[in-house]
């Protein structure tokens, strides 16, 4: 429950896209791919555990929240055990990172350390940025730009402009997962003094933000082809096959306020991102 499996597509998706782009250039290292995938998953799990622990300590996860029960605040797991789980998850991410650093370079050390620090400071530390409405910005950066470009770099040891552009739609959908979470928890976050983007913008504008982020992901996916990439073609438009998955969840987020519906919308957004990125990866490989 504390690992929040519904959010894990945000960790898997960028590694698939970055690795697919490297494969189009004739480079695919299976062990590197596995290490990048495990590292991303354990960073996500560690972030979720840290968030569970820190929110409970700050009193943000109360009994009246609409989302699933948090294990620390709900008394299901002692806080110390959740904290130990956090350390273990980040420790496993570090082990995966050691291999990547040894095989691809010190640049991945910087990316990995920054990702772990960002995960801890999301709701931890003296000034958690998740409490100041910056959560979506950091998710976009670390589960979009850093994760896609980093996965690509792990394979080919350079960063291309295509990897940075393709990271944009991936990051937008990852951040959209957090937007649903914040829309659902808007009232309890406001009472707890947690100034998320939804609290700052209000429900109507946050719903518009969600729809815009999802739509923009579809618009930006074919940009490398449109901008004249030598290796990527119109196959990137395969992502449009995911539009039927996007429309129902946009309607749900735009109309519903009850916990069960928004919990399903959160899971559906994660599934949308994974489907989108599988199609994007297929389009990259087909180019």
How would you characterize the overall build of this protein?
By secondary structure, the protein is mostly helical. It has one domain: Farnesyl Diphosphate Synthase (Orthogonal Bundle), CATH 1.10.600. Helix content is 72%, strand content 0%. It has 12 helices and no strands. The protein is globular. The model has no long low-confidence stretch (mean pLDDT 90).
Quaternary state of the chains = single chain
List SSEs in N-to-C order: HHHHHHHHHHHH
- CATH arch. level architecture: Orthogonal Bundle
Which regions have little confidence, pLDDT < 50, spanning 5+ residues?
none
The general outline is globular
Helix content bin: over 70%
Number of contiguous helices = 12
Mean pLDDT: 90
Number of strands: 0
Give the arrangement of secondary structure elements.
Elements: H1 9-24, H2 30-58, H3 79-104, H4 107-121, H5 135-156, H6 161-184, H7 186-191, H8 197-201, H9 203-220, H10 223-226, H11 243-255, H12 259-286
Please tag this protein with its features.
single chain, 287 residues, mainly alpha
How would you briefly describe this protein structure?
The chain has 287 residues and is mostly helical.
């Amino acid at each position: 429950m504390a690992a929040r499996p519904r959010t894990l597509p945000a960790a898997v998706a960028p590694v698939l896209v970055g690795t697919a782009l490297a494969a189009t250039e004739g480079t695919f290292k299976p062990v590197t791919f596995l290490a990048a995938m495990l590292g991303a998953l354990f960073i996500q799990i560690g972030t979720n555990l840290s968030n569970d622990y820190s929110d409970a300590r700050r009193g943000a996860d109360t009994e009246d929240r609409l989302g699933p029960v948090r294990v620390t605040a709900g008394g299901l797991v002692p806080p110390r055990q959740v904290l130990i789980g956090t350390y273990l998850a980040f420790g496993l991410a570090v082990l995966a990172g050691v291999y990547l650093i040894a095989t691809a370079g010190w640049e991945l050390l910087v990316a990995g350390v920054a990702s772990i620090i960002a995960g801890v400071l999301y709701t931890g530390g003296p000034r958690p940025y998740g409490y100041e409405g910056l959560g979506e910005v950091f998710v976009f950066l670390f589960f979009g730009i850093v994760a896609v470009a980093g996965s690509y770099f792990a394979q080919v040891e350079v960063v291309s402009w295509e990897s940075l552009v393709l990271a944009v739609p991936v990051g937008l959908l990852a951040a959209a997962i957090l937007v649903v979470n914040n829309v659902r928890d808007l009232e309890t976050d406001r009472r707890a003094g947690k100034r998320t983007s939804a609290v700052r913008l209000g429900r109507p504008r946050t719903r518009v933000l969600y729809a815009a982020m999802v739509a923009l992901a579809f618009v930006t996916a074919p940009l490398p082809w449109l901008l004249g990439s030598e290796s990527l073609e119109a196959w990137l438009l395969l992502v449009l096959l995911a539009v039927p998955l996007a429309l129902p969840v946009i309607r749900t987020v735009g109309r519903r306020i009850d916990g069960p519906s928004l919990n399903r919308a959160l899971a559906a957004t994660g599934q949308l991102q994974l489907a989108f990125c599988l199609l994007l990866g297929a389009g990259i490989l087909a180019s």
